[in-house]
Amino acid sequence: MNFKVFDSYEEVSAYSAELLAKVISEKEDAVLGLATGSSPVGMYKELIKLYEEGSLDFSKTKSINLDEYVGLDGNHDQSYRYFMDTNLFDHVNMDKKNTYVPDGTAEDLTEGAKKYDELIESMGGIDVQVLGIGPNGHIGFNEPADELKLNTHVAELTEETIKANARFFASEKDVPTRAVTMGVGPILKAKKIILIASGENKAWAVKSLVDDVITTKIPATLLKLHPDVTVVLDKEAASML
Ligand SMILES: N[C@@H]1[C@@H](O)[C@H](O)[C@@H](COP(=O)(O)O)O[C@@H]1O
User: Fold this and answer.
1) Contact call for residues 58 and 24 (beta carbons, < 8 A)
2) Positive/negative CA dihedral, 49, 228, 40, 212
């Protein structure tokens, strides 16, 4: 794992955008594994800037997102589809039909999850996967547990994650309790991974990335098995390293 620590979130965002832009400049039809949450918002802003300056072209890229809340359709302002549209897709020349987010309203969620894995395979896998990290070490919605799921599946959110994400909803009881998430399989199969973390509340989870332990109780520790992970941090998130 390669750790990069910056003084500010702005620098974290600019550096992460640079890494992603490099992948696109080397492969114009790159498959981008994208994430939601507050961590990558600044990176998306930087990518839009690069696009507007004419130094980045998304026309041939495809994207596949990590997760989506069960029960929220793409028009709900807290759905991850809506997040991606408003934070990135609506502002760059990406063909919307090449952007994929799991369907949290599918009648048969299990079947939908299976199809999502087939879709990832049919795209030839993910060239670069962007990740945030939960304060408890979750990635996507792969929550700490005795065992983890390999493939895309429906996940129950932990109490801690519901609390952490409540800030985006009117109240805690409005936070969906389930989500469709990629399993750790497709994440670890991505050719390259960029994990972004900022703020002191991520310091504990970030610290778990540097010791000699891999545990499903802290899903992000599985990333230690991957040969090309860059962890981009501000100094608060790096404060326990
Ligand atoms: N499912 C998402 C994750 O994909 C995200 O990485 C994490 C951190 O979010 P944030 O970046 O807002 O701290 O929490 C959410 O629950």
Assistant:
1) yes
2) negative
Q: Identify any residues that bridge with 174 across adjacent strands, giving them in sequence order.
A: none
- Distance between CA atoms of residues 30 and 32, nearest Å: 6
If one counts every other C-beta atom within 10 angstroms of the C-beta of residue 16, the result is 25
Q: How many CA atoms lie within 13 A of 184 on its CB side?
A: 22
How high is the ipTM of this complex?
0.95
Query: Is 138 noted as a catalytic residue in this protein?
Result: yes
Question: What domains lie within the chain, and their CATH numbers?
Answer: 2-234 (3.40.50.1360)
Q: Which of 68, 87, 133 to mutate to test the pocket of ligand 1 (most atoms within 8 A of CB)?
A: 133
Whole-structure pTM value: 0.96
Taking every pair of Cα atoms in the chain, the longest distance, rounded to a whole number of angstroms, is 47
Substitution candidate for ligand 1 out of 87, 138, 178 with most atoms within 8 A of CB: 138
Divide the 241 residues of the chain into consecutive groups of 10 and give the mean pLDDT of each group. 98 98 98 97 98 97 98 95 98 97 97 97 97 96 96 94 91 95 97 98 98 97 98 98 96
Distance 139 CA to ligand 1 centre (A): 7
Start-to-end C-alpha separation, the chain: 13
